[in-house]
């Protein structure tokens, strides 16, 4: 079958189309014919080797962290799915590979596709929807009346996080560029800060949670708008010791990770708030929690552009160069 492979860590020149063997289907696996997959910044970071210390993949590697498709085979221990089912998933971190014609996914990482969405729309959601859920529900335990700031509210993650936060009954602020302010308001944000002309630290204060996908100085500034006991959750780094432990890193790597985020954690401690790094995990159960919100229209996908499968490399370049105006970029196999 056809797939797009990373032959070695580096840049766009290290990725190519190739013919690879059909996936092996284990007892608990579901073989899915992929109709669509989406491109995430994580794909580019892995291709470039940014995570090779934490995620030691064996190369060559098929990238792709989101998919929607149809079940074509099930393992003997599979109980939740049958041939012909329409599904969507973020495969487990050790079993990525959605830039291909077929993929074997563990049944625990898979969920029935939302009935109201096309395959293209469904493929745009799993990674970002799970990230938003794990940040806001699982880690921050947000409740009605809380105040949440979502950075990059028109982006792939931000556009879903704004809608999820609003569905949870919280007061939502978001940052966005001038051209995207109205879109983010339409997604449900109560306040939108135009980062090109406004400073969010001068306009926002007393927030319970900040979801930061930018890192660096933006994260440092975000700590200051939290109320005492508030949480900043970052998906762009720096990583923290809990992340290193979760991945089973060796002691030397744990020390290195602790050093990377030490300054941020010290600043957070001085302000009476906390910072944690989130590397999302696959979960079919959480997708099943999200699906009713999607089918009810409380979370709608924002798709910037769809590329044909043969143009997967161009889709990667489009994302890497920041050309996407809002939401996700999707690759369609059909």
TrEMBL record:
Q: Which SUPFAM superfamilies match?
A: GroES-like, NAD(P)-binding Rossmann-fold domains
GO MF entries:
oxidoreductase activity
Q: Which SMART domains match?
A: PKS_ER
**Known EC number(s)?**
1.-.-.-
Enzyme class, spelled out: oxidoreductase
Q: Which Pfam families match?
A: ADH_N, ADH_zinc_N_2
Q: Check the record and name the CDD domains matching this protein.
A: MDR_like_2 (cd05289)
Q: Which InterPro entries match?
A: ADH-like_N, ER, GroES-like_sf, NAD(P)-bd_dom_sf, Quin_OxRdtase/zeta-crystal_CS, YIM1/Zinc_Alcohol_DH_Fams
Q: Where is the Enoyl reductase (ER) domain?
A: 10-331
Q: Which domain of life is it from?
A: Bacteria
This protein's UniProt keywords:
Oxidoreductase
Q: What is this protein called?
A: NADP-dependent oxidoreductase
- Species this protein is from: Streptomyces lancefieldiae
């Amino acid at each position: 079958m056809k797939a797009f492979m990373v032959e070695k860590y580096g840049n766009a020149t290290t990725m190519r189309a190739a013919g690879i063997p059909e996936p092996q289907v284990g007892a608990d696996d579901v073989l899915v014919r992929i109709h669509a997959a989406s491109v995430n910044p994580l794909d580019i970071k892995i291709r470039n080797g940014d995570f090779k210390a934490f995620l030691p993949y064996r190369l060559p590697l098929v990238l792709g962290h989101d998919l929607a498709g149809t079940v074509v085979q099930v393992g003997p221990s599979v109980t939740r799915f049958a041939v012909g089912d329409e599904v969507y998933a973020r495969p487990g971190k050790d079993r990525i590979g959605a830039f291909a014609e077929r993929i074997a996914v563990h049944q625990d990482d898979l969920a029935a596709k939302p009935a109201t969405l096309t395959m293209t729309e469904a493929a745009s959601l799993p990674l970002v929807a799970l990230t938003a859920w794990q940040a806001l529900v699982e880690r921050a335990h947000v409740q009605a009346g809380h105040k949440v700031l979502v950075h990059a509210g028109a982006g792939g993650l931000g556009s879903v996080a704004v809608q999820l936060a609003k569905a949870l009954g919280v007061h939502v602020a978001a940052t966005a560029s001038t051209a995207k302010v109205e879109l983010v308001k339409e997604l449900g944000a109560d306040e939108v800060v135009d980062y090109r002309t406004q400073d969010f630290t001068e306009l926002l204060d007393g927030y319970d949670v900040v979801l930061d996908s930018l890192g660096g100085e933006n994260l440092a500034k975000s700590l200051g708008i939290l109320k005492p006991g508030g949480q900043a959750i970052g998906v762009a780094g720096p990583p923290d010791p809990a992340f290193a432990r979760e991945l089973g890193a060796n002691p030397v790597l744990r020390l290195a990770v602790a050093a990377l985020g030490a300054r941020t954690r010290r600043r957070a401690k001085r302000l009476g708030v906390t910072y944690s790094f989130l590397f999302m995990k696959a979960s079919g159960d959480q997708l099943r929690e999200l699906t009713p919100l999607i089918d009810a229209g409380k979370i709608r996908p924002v798709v910037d552009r769809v590329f044909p499968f043969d143009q997967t490399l161009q889709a990667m370049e489009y994302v890497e160069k920041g050309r996407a105006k809002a939401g996700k970029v999707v690759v369609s196999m059909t």
